[in-house]
Specification:
Length: about 400
């Protein structure tokens, strides 16, 4: 059976469709995926010029096309997505699902393998990479993950991939990589006002073997290797960057690690009433910003902050004490209640964002389930303080990374 699901669009005036191709993560593969995506975003065989391709989709009532790879745990997913005004909203007999899908799949299935286009993509990625690393927060995050995966180098550099490949990949390598994509497990997902008609049109395009393979990944998350380390890097910037990472067992129940991480992040650093905002920013006057994020696919709970360089030690102590307090069962009920309300509100807002609905469909396809925003809200509702404490007690300090 072909991997395709297009739901009935009852809310939006635009339709959305994504073709998602899955590959195991390693740095070279990610770099090749970035290059190919950049090339296809610029031009393809049917539209052999940047202006021509851009104009083609602009003329389709400003249809939005995106091509990019993204890392999900131990997998790379190559995104080909399109968002377009529903034909029923436009009184134009020449604008229909078939015209839009024909253009879309010309991009997906027929790249232009041209030397000049390859060199342009390399220059663009080099510029993007340079701009990305001009921000100290990105430098520190990259350094943190490269240290976290120092014994698992395939999982380092999970934004752009291998730097040498980005610079030196040949046209033959890109062609070969594209051919591997045809056999990669793939899924087509979307929303449309007439899902049956769109499904019939898309179905005829899905002739690559990967659309008939199992798309589900039994375990997406990467294990955290318990091996504590503290690194301090000298860096020329006005403020320091401090990242403190806690690992946890990837085999924990999904409910506990997903919602435990979400609640702990919101409780510690969700808003101005959160614990670390109060302790680090208000009392110490040390932090410009502070965030706490659960990286579910990395078995990592990460607290990061931009901070006055003379208060790094005090802030580090306050952060660790904040986590320790929860582990000891000291939870402020009012802040916990605010965290619950904020998480429910986030999911409620997500139902009004078509891009997040598509991401949820992708996450479900990867995990082999049908988990709705309504179910997420219900799970937030039933999450109790004792579960927050239980999750926090599963955490172990594993890395401190500081740009100073």
């Amino acid at each position: 059976m072909t991997n395709i699901r297009i739901d009935h669009n009852l809310k939006f005036k635009t339709a959305t469709l994504g073709c998602f191709l899955r590959l195991p993560l390693d740095k070279k593969t990610l770099a090749l995926a970035n290059i190919l995506a950049c090339m296809q975003s610029n031009a393809t065989k049917e539209f052999p010029g940047i202006n021509l391709q851009a104009k083609t989709f602009s003329n389709l009532y400003n249809t939005s096309l995106q091509v990019f790879p993204e890392v999900f745990g131990n997998q790379i997913v190559v995104f080909y997505t399109i968002n377009f005004v529903e034909p029923r909203e436009i009184l134009d007999p020449d604008y229909n699902y078939k015209v839009i899908m024909d253009a879309f799949f010309k991009v997906v299935k027929e790249p232009l393998f041209d030397g000049q286009l390859l060199e342009l993509a390399k220059r663009q990625l080099e510029q993007e990479r340079k701009q990305y690393y001009e921000l100290p927060a990105n430098v520190s995050l990259s350094g943190f993950f490269n240290t976290w995966y120092r014994n698992m180098p395939s999982y380092q550099d999970s934004v752009f991939g291998d730097e040498k490949t980005l610079k030196n990949a040949s046209l033959e390598e890109i062609k070969s990589f594209f051919n591997t994509l045809k056999n990669a497990p793939a899924f087509c997902l979307g929303q449309a006002q007439d899902p049956d008609s769109l499904t019939d049109l898309v179905q005829t395009q899905l002739d690559w073997p990967g659309y008939f393979d199992d798309f589900v990944v039994s375990t997406l998350s990467l294990p955290a290797e318990e091996n504590p380390i503290e690194r301090e890097i000298q860096f020329k910037s006005e403020q320091g960057q401090l990242l403190i990472g806690y690992g946890y067992d990837q085999s924990l129940p999904i409910y506990l690690k997903q919602f435990g991480g979400l609640f702990l992040g919101e409780y510690l650093a969700g808003d101005e009433s959160s614990k670390l905002f109060t302790e680090v920013r208000k009392k110490l006057g040390a932090a410009y910003a502070i965030d706490a994020t659960n990286y579910l696919n990395n078995s990592l709970f990460l607290i990061s902050t931009g901070i006055s360089k003379d208060k790094i030690a005090a802030a580090s102590k306050a952060i660790k004490m904040g986590v320790k307090a929860v582990q000891d069962g000291k939870v402020d009920k009012s802040i916990f209640s605010k965290a619950k309300s904020a998480l429910k509100r986030n999911y409620q807002i997500s139902t009004d964002r078509q891009d997040l609905i598509l991401i949820q469909m992708l996450a479900n396809a990867l995990r082999g389930r049908d988990y709705t925003f309504a179910q997420r809200i219900a799970d937030v509702d039933r999450f109790k303080i004792d579960k927050l404490i239980e999750f926090s007690q599963k955490l172990y300090f594993n890395e401190s990374y500081c740009l100073k």
